[in-house]
Amino acid sequence: MSLVERIEQVAERCGDRIAVDDGFRQITYAQLISQSDAVGHILMEQGNGEFAAVMLPRSCWFTVAAIGVIKAGRAYIPLNPANPAGYNLDIMREAGAKSLITTSEVWEEVAHYAGYDIRPLFMDGLDSYSTSSSGNCDCDGSKAAALYFTSGTTGVRKGVLYSSDNLIFMCDGIWQSCFENGLLNPRFAVVTDLEFMASVPGLFTPLMHGGTSFIVPEDVLHDIDRLSAFLSDRKIIHILTIGSVAAMLVARWKGGTLFVMAGGERMPSICSALPVGLRLYNIYGMSECGFCLQYLIRGDEQTVPIGRPFGGVRVYVLNPEMNLTPNGEVGELYVSSPGLTIGYFNNPELTCSRFVDCPFEDGGRMYRTGDLVRMLPDGEYLYCGRVDDVVKIRGYRLELGDVENVALECVGV
User: Fold this and answer.
1) pTM for this structure?
2) pLDDT tens digit string along 21-61?
3) Other CB atoms closer than 10 Å to residue 164's CB: what's the count?
4) Closest by alpha carbon to 320, among 392, 372, 376?
5) What does the DSSP 8-state code read for residue 207?
6) CA gap 282, 269 in Å, rounded
């Protein structure tokens, strides 16, 4: 069953329940389905392009648009309206995307698009569109459903293609690790930028279980006290964020159930007992393979491991000769998982170099992470560094080639 089919199945029994809340407006499951149907049908009438860009502020409209794109048999490309217009335009040109889902206000601000053949679809005017399309939406789980861009080791950004099945595996891994006994009406917060893969669990996981996705407003994101109050007041039970934010939430949490998953940077040591009701996880993952390992933090660790693999994920620690390292020795981490993405968009050479055959599984493949790890005596894995120059700052994966290439373009460098 595809991502769209699973959400539609939930909507059949929870039509009047709130599906998405962005702090200013709410939409029910019934509205989510009807509006995403409209987006899908409009896109199908516009043509058969492989991609559709979604450039929207943090709002319910983003979720509607993303699901609508998938229904149309395309893959959505999330773009941040705050990015330089030239950067967003370059991504659209690179992907050959001519459909842009946005608002009339954002469209007025992107005059740079003049002259480029773009067909806008305005979410704030969705009711004004008329469509004669009544075709069935495409729900093939193996097709490309999303294209997320990340930086590259040579200073060139990389587009990572996700199938619907990849997105489901990522969300199911998060769900099963926290709520193996099930949960009624789960309430998830989305605090990461919508153009990044880390937003996926918060956007879609609750929608597959009859819950609510809360897209936290921009102004709340930058005030830790307001964020803590936002989570508490709305009885949100799950948030995925970076380690430094997680540590600040721990210090401010006043009680109540909250599952905090922290990733994207080294998890700082808490060195204190965790508040009652709060469970804190260090979670490891990458754009190319989703979330792979997790560690349940006690609070008294001096160094926090990245933990053990999620269900269905297999990891291998290899030396440069591609042989398994003895337990306890440092090696490069390789991941084999149903969550491995399709590969890099329009870059078969890079795909072949990073997504390699797995010698330990018949017909399997694995992703070369570039991260160095070692297994601890208790079976947990500890992050030990990188084999290249990748750094992470506040959850953003930056490759120093990006910085170097820009510097070299400056006169006098």
Assistant:
1) 0.90
2) 999 999 999 999 999 999 999 999 988 689 999 999 999 99
3) 24
4) 372
5) G
6) 11
